[in-house]
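May I ask for an example protein's residues together with how it folds?

___
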Amino acid sequence: MKIHADLSKRAVVESENLDWIASPMAGVDRRMLERDGEEVARATSLVRYAPGSAFSAHRHDLGEEFLVLEGVFSDETGDFAKGMYVRNPPGSSHIPSSAPGATILVKLRQMDPADSQFVRVDTTEPEGWKNNRDGERVLPLYSGPTEDVAMFDWAPGARFPMETLARGAEYFVVEGSFEDNEGHYRAGTWLRLPAGSRQEIHTKTGAKVWRKTGHLGS
């Protein structure tokens, strides 16, 4: 299965327009944003756990990262409420579940095989957020040799100059909306810009976004 699998091409998906597709486990459904492979795949998805659902034990050979968008997601290492960002490195395993139900943005099989770092960041906590450019606050989530991940909070009316994304960028709009030189992106939109893209961001409403950069270069 290939969905937006060519990383050299721009991709935009308004996730709310996608159908939920059943996974192999009852009560766990997915909206597929990008995918290269079948059940074991390089994938970026929204995954929805019904209350009381669980997924069988499994190993992440090339890692997993996720952001909890709604509810509470759980495994043996803890309960992760809305706003938690989690990285489980290559070789890790777990048994995920959700008692009250949860929706997560999840990326699978996209980490450096040498990455060994577990990460847990509560993005709802004010500690760690820093003022950056005018109208922008940033919360770093992870920085490694091939990627940087952060949350951005843009104030209404914020505007930023054109920049070249030498190694690409990927966004998920958590709240609000923003615009750039190619389109408008509302809450729930996933956007991927290939290496070498140029982008000029502004927002009328304000926005909170998850962003990854550096991972789409050659």
User: Anything to note?
Assistant: The two ends are 23 Å apart (CA to CA). Residues 90 and 114 are 8 Å apart (CA to CA).
